[in-house]
């Protein structure tokens, strides 16, 4: 927990650790009480388990509602949380995410091989892919080092299980059930997923949802210097209030 304001819960991406929110949390903590956490890593956990964990974070903070921010894989949790627990979502913010991973065959192959490939080999593949993305987002050498030190401690089995959940995911037809004010943030240079296309597709299925496209930003935009989430949230909330007053 960091900050004194209304609760904001961050749900991490595939690496599953809220420690990687360290670039965004300090500015947000001026206006929010920012909660980050490490996702469960053991056993055959499901999306239901992961959404229950988000609900537990909110309740343990002594609150009944929160602004929920989900990044990438965390965005898939956040959207399902908004569907399952609509009364607990003040606002929903989804960063570089998707309701269904495309193309399916790629994620299915990754999910099938992840549990059986030696962790050391998997780590080398992830390191190479992440390094390219971090450099494209202008992440400094110091922050890249911190990123790799953090994700090195991520449980291999937990990572593999999250890949399996992505391979099985398809909530496109349920997006219309989301009732919370929703903002989709997409990096225009996200080469891992087509974030702009996905954001527009998802917003079209949710009445009144907004889309913010960040020029020059990629999949790791929350660690780079092109996205200050606190500013984007403040701008979005102000615009929403002006629309309401009109």
- Bin the helical content: 40-55%
Strand portion, in percent? 5-15%
- Based on CA atoms alone, the radius of gyration comes out at 17 Å
SSE order in H/E notation? EHEHEHEHHHHEHEH
First-residue to last-residue Cα separation: 36 Å
**Arithmetic mean of pLDDT:** 91
DSSP summary, beta strand count:
6
By DSSP (H or I, 4+ residues per run), the number of helices equals: 9
Output the structural class. Answer: alpha/beta
Uncertain parts:
none
Folded structure, characterized:
It is a single chain. By secondary structure, the protein is of the alpha/beta class. Helix content is about 45%, strand content about 15%. It has helices at about 25-30, 45-60, 75-85, 105-115, 120-135, 140-150, 155-170, 195-205, 230-245, and strands at about 5-10, 35, 65-70, 90-95, 180-185, 210-215. Strands 2-1-3-4-5-6 form a 6-stranded parallel sheet, with helices on one face. The termini are far apart.
Quick structural summary:
It contains 9 helices and 6 strands, in the order E-H-E-H-E-H-E-H-H-H-H-E-H-E-H.
Search tags:
alpha/beta, 246 residues, 6-stranded parallel beta sheet, globular
